[in-house]
Predict the structure.
Amino acid sequence: MSLTGLRQQVLEANLELVRRGLVLFTFGNVSGISRSEGLVAIKPSGVAYEGMTAVNMVITDLEGRVVEGELRPSSDLPTHLELYNRFPTIGGVAHTHSEFATAWAQAQLAIPCFGTTHADYFHGSVPVTACLAPDEIASNYERNTGIAICRLFDHLNPDDVPAALVAGHGPFCWGSSATGAAHIALILEAVARMAYYTVGISAHAAPISRELHSKHFLRKHGTNAYYGQVSRK
Amino acid sequence: MSLTGLRQQVLEANLELVRRGLVLFTFGNVSGISRSEGLVAIKPSGVAYEGMTAVNMVITDLEGRVVEGELRPSSDLPTHLELYNRFPTIGGVAHTHSEFATAWAQAQLAIPCFGTTHADYFHGSVPVTACLAPDEIASNYERNTGIAICRLFDHLNPDDVPAALVAGHGPFCWGSSATGAAHIALILEAVARMAYYTVGISAHAAPISRELHSKHFLRKHGTNAYYGQVSRK
Amino acid sequence: MSLTGLRQQVLEANLELVRRGLVLFTFGNVSGISRSEGLVAIKPSGVAYEGMTAVNMVITDLEGRVVEGELRPSSDLPTHLELYNRFPTIGGVAHTHSEFATAWAQAQLAIPCFGTTHADYFHGSVPVTACLAPDEIASNYERNTGIAICRLFDHLNPDDVPAALVAGHGPFCWGSSATGAAHIALILEAVARMAYYTVGISAHAAPISRELHSKHFLRKHGTNAYYGQVSRK
Amino acid sequence: MSLTGLRQQVLEANLELVRRGLVLFTFGNVSGISRSEGLVAIKPSGVAYEGMTAVNMVITDLEGRVVEGELRPSSDLPTHLELYNRFPTIGGVAHTHSEFATAWAQAQLAIPCFGTTHADYFHGSVPVTACLAPDEIASNYERNTGIAICRLFDHLNPDDVPAALVAGHGPFCWGSSATGAAHIALILEAVARMAYYTVGISAHAAPISRELHSKHFLRKHGTNAYYGQVSRK
């Protein structure tokens, strides 16, 4: 994909989150990467969504140096870069302060898999990071946020669980593109909301069985998927 | 009703759930049956609602063989078929992941009848299935989901309680037509939401009396109904 | 006010509840009374709000006999009539199944006055009826619902607390006109929602002091009111 | 800023709260001050937002005497004036009955800082006043409300925590202008909502660390801020 196409897709993914009610004011940021060129396009920092155009997207390299664009990139850029560097299969990252996913992050609890909606998208609970230590906050804070996320995936495939909660902050989501990352952000919010209602109905609600969880995830993903119209074999 | 009419009604019932906010992305599916022809029309699997037309509805027989249509039917088709085979009076089935009904399903609890809104539509609590066993998940999963629902109605008339919750999954609803099934899905979500709020106010909330429950159900249904404009005698 | 004007006002009050999201499908009903003629206008039973016109409003006398109109009146008419007969100062009644007020009714708990929003409109908690006994349900159910409400006002002025919750059912509200009754229904729902959130934050939330409660109610009502533009003296 | 400009800005800030769903009917009021002229513009009392124009804004001096305008000022004016008199850096005040901030006020609990969304705007928890004593309610009630708020800031900078909850009533927010005050009212509601969800997920949710709290506040505010496009040095 050309840089022009990447900028356009990143813009659209950012605006999709606004249209769907996931972001308030200038909150949130989505980026996308061109792996072949080693360049990332990301939303500028603190700019209103109204009137934002593809040209406003900032292009940086994987060390965060601005390559193209007049504006400063989102202050969360180093978190995105850490994820791109550590997760070689992903093509986009979305960060929001969406209400229910953020509430789970604020409660510092992973989102258990209470049902098949969750299982359709995440092959496991959505994990939450440890709280950052004072020295991780004092310098390189945003990069250390990314490192804290990556630590959760030492023994977990980021393609199987394409999101994590940063304790006391909010969700980061990813996908094969900026579009895919924004889609996961929307699904995660719906899943987080239903999990919130579930624990409100029963404090003792239990996750679904491992068998049901895998059945649903593999119905939609992998070589034997049979959901939808296109064979994935 | 002609197959053309059935397809159109099934399309409309699916779109009604989108308009009323009960489905996100491609979630959910509604079907309708022509009893005289032994044919079912159902939403295709994993297709966007935007731009969907009546021609996209898939026609199958009661064993699930596609008779007409270019697309694959909803992966939940075998659940619908099980309900049609076991409940001879129903003409439509609606399945959603609507938030509050799904939360009760995820909490694995029946929805108690806390008030007359519930009693107007369901002559009893809305039951929840047992969790499926590993072997019920391993093969014929969707059909076994239908069997788990039907087990709840061994001693209960499906016309009196036109919905059930599948544990860890979500609601299935039915009615005399696809339109009627979608209507029940909307009512069930409102009832599930108010039941959620009720237990939030009082963990000890009690169901209404059997007398009040029957009074309201029979005010709207059966030979002595007196709600609305048309005598049902 | 002429019967034509009354019908129009009752129609508008019913539609206002739809516009503000308080009613789903055919739920809810608002009526108004012409005290000089002893006639009541009320929404017809089970008719869709879309396309409803003033002519569809049913005119009855205070014994519930239809005087004008082609349709059957709301099945809750006898509850409205009981309130008109017992509360001589009121000119309109509104009944809804609005979500939060209904949840309190389903929890069978009065809504405590947790704040000044409540105190601005209700000089006391919003009371809840006792559950109706089997014989009160078996015959004259709707009238007995009205009697159960009126019992709550044996020692309470219905102008000071213009609403009550029917246990296991939902709210009835009133005012000087159909318009006023619908307005109270909207306020009650907002008050019920905030009271729900309040008990969610703190199970030990306490009502505001009697002094603050009276201060706010009397700032808006009575001879020394000083809120708004028009002196009420 | 001219009085004409001030009136227009105060009108716009009031309407912004309506557009964003923070006010119902005539609830809420925003004011702005011209420090050079010692004059305040505020919404009139109990007037519908529909059709409200800049000319309807009431101009008063800092003792509350009407200087320009045909209508009576908001009954909460003395609270606003107390804040202007005690907080010399602020240029606007916004008062709402927004649902979640009001619920915390009704629960008589400060809003803890559970996450970075809160920390981005408030350098501390959002405090709640003590309940007013009977004699504080009996006379000069609205001014005493302002005094109760100011007492919370004896050892706290109102620029660091630009809002407070009045126990049993609702939030008051402020900023460098009417626009800024309304913006804080919107942020506070989002923060209060997520804090509500957080305690619903975990009754033992803990505030974020002091280090993370300061990191986020200072990322957006003060001499070393690096969020957004404009250097604040």
